[in-house]
Amino acid sequence: MASILRLDQYWNMFAPFPIKEDGWYVIPAQLRDGAKVDLFRDGQPLQWDKPALISAMFKNDRWRAYMMNLFFDKHNEIHLLQYAQYLCRQWNDDHPHEKQLITFDIVFMMKVIRIKGPSDPEKIVLWHHQCF
Q: What does the domain layout of the chain look like in residue ranges?
């Protein structure tokens, strides 16, 4: 009877343990000419502060889901390597030799959500990469 009336619903997505970690990405990079930029923000100056709207940092929802899986999946080394190689190719194909990418870190700025409010952000380096 419950399934006919659709009273058999579950709230597993939200309970009993909702996600407690939240955050945003910063990808500090060094270019061949010594400049430091944020790859995640398309080469803008490096900025560690929380963006006003984190969802606006992603090209679309697929990129958002992919990037969040990079952090939440604890066995993601191959995905981090492939994403880092992608970043090197994309950047270096679009920029002259002196502005090419040398090295970068993929950093997740994590905030833990608690009853008394979110924690201060913690820098978690997920990957260090050198472009050759």
A: 21-130
